[in-house]
Amino acid sequence: MSSVLVVIAKEKEISNKLTWGVRFSQAMKMPLIVIHPEKYPKHQEPVPQELDQPCSQPILEAIRQQLVEQELELEPTLHFLQGPNPLSQILEFTQKEEVALLLTGQQEIHNDNNRVLRKKHDGLLDRASCDVMVLRGPEAPPPLKKILVPIAGGPHAAAALKLAFQLIEVEEEAVITALHIESAASEEAEGVGQLVLERILGPMPTEARSRIKSKIVLSDNVIDGIEQTAKEGEFDLVLLGASNTGFLHKSLFGNIPVKLLQRPINGTIGVLHASQPAAQKAVDYLRYQFNRILPQLKREERITLFENLQSGSKVSIDFIALIGLSTMIAAFGLINNAAAVIIGAMLVAPLMTPMIGTGLGLVQGNVNLVKEAIRAIAIGFVLSLFLGFLSGLLGMVKLGVHPPLTSELLARCSVNEYDFLIALLSGIAAAYALARPGLMAALPGVAIAAALVPPIATVGVTIAWGYPDLALRAASLFGINLLSIILASTLTLYVFGIRARHKQPRLWARRATVMLMMLAFIVSVPLGTIIVGQVRAVDTLRASVQKLMSQEAYHSLADLKRIPQKDNQPETIVLKLYSKRPVNVALARKLTQHTRKHLKKPNILVRIISLQTWEIQK
Fold this sequence. Notes:
Blueprint: E1 3-7, H1 14-28, E2 32-39, E3 47-49, H2 58-69, E4 77-83, H3 86-96, E5 99-105, H4 106-110, H5 124-127, E6 131-136, E7 146-150, H6 155-170, E8 175-182, H7 189-201, H8 206-209, E9 212-218, H9 222-233, E10 237-241, H10 247-253, H11 256-261, E11 268-273, H12 278-293, H13 299-312, H14 317-335, H15 339-348, H16 352-364, H17 367-399, H18 407-411, H19 419-435, H20 443-450, H21 453-464, H22 468-495, H23 507-549, E12 555-563, E13 572-579, H24 585-599, E14 605-612
């Protein structure tokens, strides 16, 4: 038989939790079970307590006395749990006793030092097989007469409304007020809110609707609207569903129930987290196991990482000197077409550190660090642009007014389909290497892969030489690198266990992270489409050429390969033919025109290679 379970960890919670436990037990027509968990070195089986006999533990005796005073149809039970991991014991107990609703307190959820109930992804909210309600309220709750249920249409809010209706079926004088907060963005806002409420309350039985009052409040802040309504109405219970657990929703709007629990509301606040479907539980379990397997940073490692990134993200004479030197080295390497010199400039450039520092600031919600890092990136970009322009002018003194564009310059003036992926992986590798002191030797390789300063130097040189279109392309390459590295470092540091120091991560940091993810998606979609389109175009071209060559008696297609544009070489299609006689001019012209027409690229280079074949005469 299903039951209502109340977890009491502290003596001051007894009166409040037992009162609500009795009310929900009567409303749901289920037996009441009370447990008191306690950390103990050895695992002990749950010990049931006799309600007609005094308990040796003071807190158990206080619970027993209040349970004896209750008049319940089904006799309540009291259990004592002891073990090294009370959380696991509670989870096992809920499954064994077929618990339908578990009542707990907010301190146990949000206090890391309390091992009874820990935070989400590691506590009861995501791992329990039943509904979980977090309660906060006065020690002696008054009689239940007025219930406020803020609703917005989510699954948890629907479960909260259903539970409130079960309460008023037992409490005959109690009335539910269904509240919807609507933004005062237009004159029709109140009508829109009323339609939302009607859609949510529509499936409710007629008897239930007669005891539910609808209320629309216009407010740009949902939490302020709920708090103001709760204070004005003097509600005995504010019962709301947990926020959507989706990352995007929480990142943009924050966790409303958690913030509401921190507001000074006199009545009892209950936040209901309905049990999740099996698929969602599986995802949460995999996430939990992933966090356990991945090595998290130790305190000493975090301190070292913070110090390195905070100091490296500030503009100093060392930062300016290295930026200037690396830019000049890269610019002269680009002008002289010297790849080794450009690689040396990548090793000297210090731009990677403030980019990863921006990621750290977003994870921590540290606005000062983000400002310092962005300031360093901006100053580094402007300085590199100026020195690249100056280097371009110096190059013109030696090479003339219209110097030739080298292959190294041209290579930075086109955004390759894989540039975004390379920068993303470079950001992950850089953050990973910085987070692991033993991997610091990998940072020079990451700096070469990221290639941050050469695109900026290319922008300056091409502007000086009068190629604004090429400068724009080189700038877009740097922009993609910047976006990818900041996003990758943010996600990597978060996975390594770095979190904000305050209880609630600041919304601006969450919103900035979501915006970076959206920008990355916007950039990656067209690049990915280009890759897929090129592969598909080559496949269809191969089939088309094979069909065309089937009409030839002395030639057949052996292979078709696409060579992308590189340096100063154009995009090329290579056709290899098996030939019993030499390829004549008419066939070569026919294949070239067919290829260019099929790909819709009139200037693409078509190269035909003839492989001679012969037959042995009998």
